[in-house]
Amino acid sequence: MRHNTNKIQWCPGCGDFLIHIALKQAITELKIPLHQLVVVTGIGCNSKMSQYMEGYGSETLHGRGIPFATGVKMANPELTVISVSGDGDSYGIGVGHLIHACRRNIPFVHITCDNQNYALTTGQASCTTPIGAKTKSTPEGNEIAPMHPVNLAEVAGCKFVRSVPDKDIKLMKETIMEAIKFNGFAHINIQQSCPSWKRW
């Protein structure tokens, strides 16, 4: 179990700072014992979240946070399991896992930090990048319609789906607390700022 967290290293102005604050506040207010907390991440800017939290954590393969979190929860249902990933992780390479997590309804929380680009690799278009957005991979503007992850989760059968902005720490905290208390799979899409690479 981790007690001394690593030094936080995100870009100035990154929404991950705010998400981290809201997540820690939610865990603290719910008085979740750290030995019963597991934070799972995939690969992306937010994947450091598991290293910046006290309790147990694991940084998994790209797009594989959800199946890892599923396994942890199934192995020990008493644990509070929170999976955190980005839009590329959740809605790109990991979208199949998201769909089946919605169907299975195993009780854990999945938070997607949706900054609408692959920021860790310096700003390529992701599956939520809006049409017309200029990125490193779409210098003339993105021509592919973005997916709508909240609708996708609902259609897949998720009973708890929320979308909140990263600018509202109180709303994020309350939503995370509600999700943790929900008896089933809970998916939160956080509309995340990314001043380093999201310039639209």
Any descriptors?
200 residues; alpha/beta; Rossmann fold; six-stranded parallel beta sheet; 6 helices; 8 strands
Poorly predicted sequence stretches spanning 5 or more consecutive residues: none
Tell how many strands the DSSP assignment holds: 8
State the distance separating the first and last CA atoms: 40 Å
Shape, please? globular
CATH architecture: 3-Layer(aba) Sandwich
By CATH, the superfamily comes out as Thiamin diphosphate (ThDP)-binding fold, Pyr/PP domains
CATH topology value: Rossmann fold
Counted up, domains total 1
Structural class: alpha/beta
Provide a concise account of the structure shown:
The chain has six helices and eight strands, in the order αββαβααβββαβαβ.
List the topology elements.
Elements: H1 15-29, E1 37-41, E2 56-59, H2 65-75, E3 80-86, H3 87-93, H4 95-104, E4 109-114, E5 117-118, E6 124-125, H5 149-155, E7 160-165, H6 169-181, E8 186-191
Parallel strand pairs: 1-2, 1-3, 3-4, 4-8, 7-8
Antiparallel strand pairs: 5-6
Structure characterization notes:
- The chain is an alpha/beta fold.
- It has a single domain (15-191), classed as Thiamin diphosphate (ThDP)-binding fold, Pyr/PP domains (Rossmann fold, 3-Layer(aba) Sandwich), CATH 3.40.50.
- Helix content is 32%, strand content 19%.
- It has six helices and eight strands, in the order H-E-E-H-E-H-H-E-E-E-H-E-H-E.
- It has helices at residues 15-29, 65-75, 87-93, 95-104, 149-155, 169-181, and strands spanning 37-41, 56-59, 80-86, 109-114, 117-118, 124-125, 160-165, 186-191.
- Strands 2-1-3-4-8-7 form a six-stranded parallel beta sheet, sandwiched between helices.
